[in-house]
Amino acid sequence: MRYYSIEEMTTWERFYRANFINSLSGFKPISLVSTINSDGVANLALFSNIIHLGSDPALIGIMNRPREASPHTLGNIESNGHYTINHVHSSFVEAAHQTSAKYAREVNEYVEVGLTPEYKENFSVPYVKESSVQYGLELSEIIPIKANDTFLIIGKLKHVFLEESTVSHDGFINIQRTGSMASLGMNAYYETIPVKRFKYAKVGVTIQELPF
Amino acid sequence: MRYYSIEEMTTWERFYRANFINSLSGFKPISLVSTINSDGVANLALFSNIIHLGSDPALIGIMNRPREASPHTLGNIESNGHYTINHVHSSFVEAAHQTSAKYAREVNEYVEVGLTPEYKENFSVPYVKESSVQYGLELSEIIPIKANDTFLIIGKLKHVFLEESTVSHDGFINIQRTGSMASLGMNAYYETIPVKRFKYAKVGVTIQELPF
Lengths: 212, 212
Fold this sequence. Notes:
Two copies of one chain form a homodimer. With 212 residues, chain A is α+β, with helices and mostly antiparallel strands. Chain A has a single domain (26-190), classed as Pnp Oxidase, Chain A, CATH 2.30.110.10. Helices cover 17% and strands 37% of the residues of chain A. Chain A has helices at 6-10, 14-24, 71-80, 93-98, 109-113; strands at 2-5, 31-36, 42-47, 50-55, 58-64, 82-87, 117-118, 127-128, 133-145, 150-162, 182-184, 188-197. The longest helix of chain A has 11 residues, at 14-24. At the A-B interface, strand 1, helix 2, strand 4, strand 5 and helix 4 of A face strand 1, helix 2, strand 4, strand 5 and helix 4 of B. Strand 1 (2-5) of chain A pairs antiparallel with strand 10 of chain B.
């Protein structure tokens, strides 16, 4: 294996370093965050930094870049208090990636990239109709991360839409069956192959497999 | 699609709900966090909540569960200030999963599950020799998340070890080539298939593919 020190990495060209360090932490989710601004214009933004925070209460976090680099999603969540998260599939990954272009605040990214807003269950913010795993959140708290001016946006889970046939007997959701992708770095998208599922590990007990 | 409200999810049996909500946020990284306690005993713990926070400075976060549920990694990082993160591959996924059993503080998980500690570059904490993507961090800050008593542990990247042949011309690391896995929920592990990589998206410019 090759050794890379932080001193060496710091000398690298900016995008080379960003690609390398973004890939290093491993595979990530990839979803479209849908919001509405105070003028009622819908926004779509691509996020890979989506974090399971807990199941009871059901909390999901997203890491937002510094405000000057990525102001729309953060501002819309602050003003509206509600947002939706929608898994990305191969069938619309180009459109999803295109939402990461720096559109002006008054531009509706659904229209620009050709995705379909879906309003339902009296939620003020649309879901992405093309997505087969959609969930709606209510803002709980925004935590500023001083180390690099980013923000951890914490949301309370309120609504979920998905194919019931993907849910196993124990609640596990086989998101690979409806084509949800994984991402890597800033711009790479993957399909997945299930390898192993295990029971809860216990001291002194041989590990046991679970079906998917 | 089936609609699930939070009111319905709240009525579910605890593990069913945990499986469902843990899967909902999508695919995650999967790595072993290696630490040393104040008596010099090495600890290994399996984490899927590993978060890219930024490249400049190079910061990587891990979400730690409430202290009473998962005290060892958090305590060791607080006392030692250094830790390593090591990707999980199919070849040792059983051993990796077994580290999630609740071993006592004085137990060395490397010995218990049969993985090999590798000390190098004068770092006080070992890497997992079986892993082909390893990195070493220095504690920057621990942010308590009041909403559910979890902790965001922020580390500064210091050292990286990986196969140079996996790095593309632009710094992107093809972690799938050395078998790094993705995870889902609390207990499922996946291999990945590269589908698409795109250039940085720009307004009004047709999306362009990049090689892996």
